[in-house]
Design a protein that fits this description.
Nuclear Transport Factor 2, Chain: A; 6-stranded mixed β-sheet
Amino acid sequence: MDGAPRTELDAVHAAAVLYCEAVYKARQDVFETLCHDAFHMVCVDGPELQTWDKAAYLARVTARDAAEGDPVYEIQSVEADGNMARVKLQVGVPGVIYEDYLGFVRVDGAWKLINKLFRTADSSALAG
C-alpha cells in the first residue's frame, strides 16, 4: 500500500474484497452498485483483446452459478491517490484463477470500479 491516508487505503481494500467475494459468489447485485456506469473491462488472453461494458459484464456474472465454500483470492497491492486507486489481485472461480488490475474512482465519497484489465493466471499462483 502507498502513502495515502490509512482510511482511504482501507476503503479501497474493502471494495476489492467485496469485488472478490462477488466474483466468487456470482453476485450481480453487488456489481450493479460497485461498478461505475462507465465501467469497462478488457481481457488480454489470446491473440485479440476482448472487451465488455457494464451491462455485458453483469450478463456474464448472471450466467454463472455461485461457487461453493469460501472465496479464493489474494489482494497483492492497493494504491490510492486523491480520487483514484488501483488494485492488483488474483481471484478464483472453480477451475480458473484470474489476475486482475482494477481501477477505482471516488464518486460522491464512494469507491466505484471504473475499469478492469485481466488475464487467466496459472492456477498454482494461489497455492500456499
